[in-house]
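From the methods appendix. Each design record in this collection lists the tokenized structure first, followed by the designed amino acid sequence. Records were kept in a plain field format so they could be parsed without special tools. The example shown here is representative of the layout used throughout.

RECORD:
FOLD TOKENS (496 positions):
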């Protein structure tokens, strides 16, 4: 029988091939259904402008479906889990015992960083250094570290000292990369000069994406924003139906950050603690290193901390490795479509991640447009994923004039980094699928040159930039993806 992916109302459950389901048996099938659970209620929580959710039926034909299930704890696990003749060398790496997987986890483990072309990062930093101030004045790096509550990655030291190179700012298990490479910034500026972003309904979207940030409390953030220079950012606040606030912040480069407080479950605390020990969140396992000003609380070794110049520790060091911002909650991308394509593009984007990564996905309508939701990390009993990528349809007369500008030697000027699965075998399946689909692409801005599975395994990462319709090959959206194995040396969950 052909492999069919069904999305059902309310729970938007991804169903697998009927033949596979028969082999799995009832117990495994129920576990498979539970693994794909993403309640539409999560979307209600995610969007402050939510009104009415409209449910749809759809059928996705996936004739080249290649994932294996059997008894594997990971939905991305390689075929050795169902191969009785598997050799010892095919067993999961050590990482698989560290990073959880299974029915309550997405096959997409971590949305780890977003890389941004960011003009004048070091020009502004140079001004601060020359003034010998401990706190910068209208400095974009300070906006991220002091105002938004990110920490400074120790890898940024050389860039800060030389006033060139990428600056890494960290929050929880995630990062933002600030790159002011003059040549690429200029190319991006040239590409965007003729781009407009006004939708046909008159509302318009001035931004290509919005980045969601997670906080335990918004109190400190609101105090920082109140004292922030008007040239550095602007902000406004709205309140959800449950009384929680959302703070929308626009920086000096017109990028939007949406700050929300962590959602607390109403279950018994003892039960939650027991479940957390058995099935930890990815963010509780993964932690980016940050520069601290107190060696006793530092999460780096004393040698690493001692190697950081005093002035940088004084400027960017924080008292604890736990940053005020807990990490990236979601990234929402705006996908420009015609009226004729509205209502189908988000569905096709969800199918793409279903097909190539076996990802947990859903498609909802918030009363304004369809939104594809791609889940990352642990999925709780309420269907809320730790992180999500959102793709929102925006109707325009001419989508070509409104899409993210891009070129083969630049991409879109920004990219996301994703860690997949819980072992190298999971990553190899993802790499094989993307190679077979003709997706891989080399960004000349970076050193990795990966176009086949062997080089993907050697580099522990590969790139692609086109999200395509799996039936026609048509490009639906352009977004550079950096796909990594959790054995990549920069994985924040540990060294393997």
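DESIGN:
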């Amino acid at each position: 029988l052909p492999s069919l992916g069904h999305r059902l109302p309310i729970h938007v459950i991804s169903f697998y091939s009927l033949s596979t389901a028969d082999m799995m048996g009832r117990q495994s099938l129920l576990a498979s259904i539970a693994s794909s659970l993403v309640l539409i209620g999560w979307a209600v929580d995610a969007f402050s402008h939510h009104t009415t959710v409209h449910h749809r039926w759809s059928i996705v034909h996936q004739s080249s479906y290649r994932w294996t299930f059997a008894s594997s704890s990971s939905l991305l696990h390689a075929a050795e889990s169902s191969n009785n003749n598997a050799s010892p060398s095919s067993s999961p790496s050590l990482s698989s015992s560290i990073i959880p997987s299974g029915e309550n986890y997405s096959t997409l483990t971590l949305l780890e960083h977003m890389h941004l072309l960011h003009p004048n990062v070091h020009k502004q930093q140079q001004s601060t250094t020359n003034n010998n101030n401990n706190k910068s004045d209208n400095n974009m790096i300070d906006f991220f570290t002091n105002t938004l509550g990110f920490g400074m990655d120790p890898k940024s030291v050389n860039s800060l000292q030389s006033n060139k190179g990428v600056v890494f700012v960290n929050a929880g298990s995630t990062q933002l990369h600030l790159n002011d490479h003059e040549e690429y910034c200029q190319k991006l500026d040239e590409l965007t000069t003729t781009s407009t972003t006004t939708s046909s309904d008159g509302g318009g979207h001035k931004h290509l994406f919005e980045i969601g940030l997670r906080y335990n409390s918004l109190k400190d953030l609101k105090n920082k924003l109140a004292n922030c220079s008007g040239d550095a950012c602007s902000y406004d606040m709205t309140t959800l139906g449950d009384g929680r606030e959302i703070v929308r912040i626009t920086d000096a480069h017109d990028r939007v950050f949406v700050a929300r407080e962590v959602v607390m479950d109403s279950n018994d605390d003892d039960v939650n603690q027991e479940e957390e020990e058995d099935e930890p969140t990815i963010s509780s396992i993964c932690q980016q290193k940050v520069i601290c000003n107190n060696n006793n609380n530092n999460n780096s070794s004393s040698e690493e901390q001692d190697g950081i110049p005093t002035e940088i520790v004084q400027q960017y060091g924080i008292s604890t490795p736990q940053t005020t911002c807990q990490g990236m909650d979601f990234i929402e991308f705006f996908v420009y479509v015609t009226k004729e394509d509205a209502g189908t593009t988000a569905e096709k984007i969800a199918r793409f991640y279903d097909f190539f990564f076996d990802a947990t996905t859903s498609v909802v309508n918030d009363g304004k447009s369809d939104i594809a939701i791609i889940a990352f990390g642990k999925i709780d009993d309420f269907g809320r994923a730790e992180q999500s990528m959102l793709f929102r349809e925006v109707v325009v007369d001419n989508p070509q004039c409104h899409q993210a500008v891009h070129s083969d030697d630049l991409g879109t000027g920004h990219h996301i980094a994703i860690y997949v699965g819980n072992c190298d075998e999971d990553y190899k399946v993802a790499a094989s699928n993307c190679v077979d689909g003709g997706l891989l692409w080399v960004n000349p801005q970076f050193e990795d040159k990966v176009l086949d599975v062997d080089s993907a395994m050697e580099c522990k990462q590969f790139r692609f930039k086109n999200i395509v319709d799996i039936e026609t090959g048509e490009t639906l959206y352009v977004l550079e993806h950096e796909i990594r194995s959790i054995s990549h040396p920069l994985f924040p969950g540990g060294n393997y």
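APPENDIX NOTE: The first strand starts at residue 4 and ends at 7.
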